From TrEMBL:
Belongs to the unc-93 family. This is Protein unc-93 homolog A. It comes from Sinanodonta woodiana. GO terms for cellular component: membrane. SUPFAM superfamilies: MFS general substrate transporter.
Length: 490
């Protein structure tokens, strides 16, 4: 289908979506899914496991960047670089790479970019970290777009084979994926804390220095805090070696165990010459047209950006301003394990129960949990004698993040089933924009200002999500009413 003028209304867009989905379903009835239920479930577990190994390395390393590589803001600047490159990559590469290589080999092409970043951490200077960060960012957009497209496709097939609701099946698959994915916070952080806790001294930090931790923390005013001193080099090498090995295992899992899927199999009969050409400008236009034509996508931008901001704040600012500053860098991993356990378990739980109550209650839960936690962080004075509070706050943040990650991904899959590549590429672009903002100003703003920014995006994002839910439900009811009227007339 060639590019058209913008549709006049969201109702027109919905009608067009219904036509396309109907055509796709008619073709699937003839061709059928290309996998059995057993194969689909096997590939779900393999894909989830590969990301578990890969992000055991990356996420745990990301959690430590602001503390280990705090000199001249190297850690947070390189993290911002990753997501800036990811935005640029997301504008062109995901549809192009996925269309030519398929989802599996898009993953295989992208994962070595993470491996090189892990290797660069053995010698973290601008000359090694910046190029590795740029390369990782380039590979990140195709990686996540391929993952989301793969899960949406096999989820749709599974729903057809089991006579389940498509939205329910996609939610379950994303729930299983993020349950396994978020356990990476456990294993990687267990490694870092186990190694870094082997301290050589028992130095204490002055109470005056501790009083400037938490929401009051400002990057340039806390250089005399011994809790933020870099660990011994041999311990850093040990942690980096484990992370590098984990990333390599994740890549090999995809290479040897994951099955390729043919995204175009359901459309082969209707394909016209030149319709799916490999021209980059045409592929970019598909993404631009998605932004232009879909009011839903425009309304979801603040919430999608918040998804990146909240993850970056927790990984870069909570770990440094609250945990490292108050109770030491060796405790970062242990606190993040609590976060990972809460996040993983809730990801699975929420993915299962959304079919009974819908998306709305979970988004309300995220608003209350994250909003309440952020307000608490603003007024709470961290106390090294009350370490359990750090774990409670981490668990609460994990619960909110579980909602944000599973429900936004599934909601995109539900709204934009007929154009998943462009939709999920857009998701990664706007989420990456959140990471760029948060990591970009991390070395310059005090923590309380960062919390206010988080709260602002959360409030606006949730409000506009509510508009999408209401509009979409009204549009569906209108289409159903019109269909019933036409049926009665015939």
């Amino acid at each position: 289908m060639e590019p058209k003028l913008a549709m006049n209304s969201e109702e027109d867009a919905l009608k067009m979506d219904n036509v396309l989905i109907s055509e796709q379903n008619d073709t699937e009835t003839t061709l059928g899914p290309s996998m059995s239920k057993k194969q689909i479930l096997k590939n779900l577990i393999i894909l989830s496991s590969s990301f578990l190994f890969l992000f055991t390395a990356f996420q745990s390393s990301q959690n430590l960047q602001s503390s280990l590589n705090k000199a001249e803001g190297l850690g947070t600047v390189t993290l911002a670089t990753i997501y800036a490159a990811s935005v640029l990559s997301g504008l062109l590469l995901p549809p192009l790479v996925i269309r030519h290589l398929g989802c599996k080999w898009s993953l295989v092409l992208s994962m070595p970019c993470y491996i090189l970043y892990m290797a660069a951490n053995f010698y973290p200077v601008w000359g090694t970290m910046l190029p590795a960060s740029l390369l990782l960012g380039v590979g990140a957009a195709p990686l996540w777009a391929a993952k989301c497209t793969y899960l949406t496709q096999i989820g749709t097939w599974y729903a057809k084979l089991t006579n389940r609701d498509r939205d329910d099946a996609i939610n379950r698959f994303f729930g299983v994926f993020f349950m396994m994915f978020q356990t990476s916070q456990i294993w990687g952080n267990l490694v870092s804390s186990a190694v870094f806790s082997l301290r050589m001294d028992n130095t204490t930090v002055d109470e005056t220095v501790i009083s400037n931790c938490g929401a009051k923390y400002c990057p340039i005013e806390n250089d005399n805090n011994t809790n933020l001193e870099r660990p011994d080099l041999d311990k850093i090498y040990t942690v980096c070696g484990v992370y590098l090995a984990s990333a390599v295992i994740g890549c090999l899992t995809v290479v040897f165990l994951l099955d390729q899927i043919d995204l175009d199999q359901t459309k082969k009969r209707d394909r016209k010459p030149g319709r799916h050409g490999g021209d980059s400008a045409h592929l970019l236009w598909e993404i631009v047209r998605h932004w232009r034509d879909s009011r839903y996508q425009k309304l979801l931008i603040p919430l999608t950006v918040y998804s990146g901001i909240e993850q970056a704040f927790f990984a870069g600012d909570f770990t440094k301003s609250f945990v490292s500053c108050t109770i030491g860098i060796w405790n970062v991993g242990y606190v993040m394990i609590a976060y990972g356990v809460a996040n993983a378990s809730c990801s699975l739980l929420f993915g299962r129960f959304v079919q009974y109550v819908g998306h709305v209650p979970f988004f309300v839960l995220a608003l209350l949990v994250h909003g309440g936690t952020q307000i608490t962080l603003l007024v709470w004075k961290p106390d090294p004698e009350m370490t359990y509070i750090f774990y409670i706050l981490a668990c609460l943040w994990g619960i909110g993040d579980a909602v944000i990650q599973t429900q936004i991904n599934a909601f995109y899959g539900y709204l934009f089933t007929n154009k998943p590549e462009a939709a999920f590429a857009s998701y990664r672009i706007f989420e990456s924009a959140g990471f760029i903002l948060s990591f970009g100003y991390s070395s310059f703003l005090c923590t309380n200002i960062k919390i206010y920014i988080c709260l602002g995006f959360l409030a606006v994002g949730m409000a506009q999500y509510g508009v999408v839910e209401i509009t979409h439900r009204r549009s569906e009811q209108h289409v159903e009413t019109r269909s019933m009227a036409e049926l009665c007339q015939t």
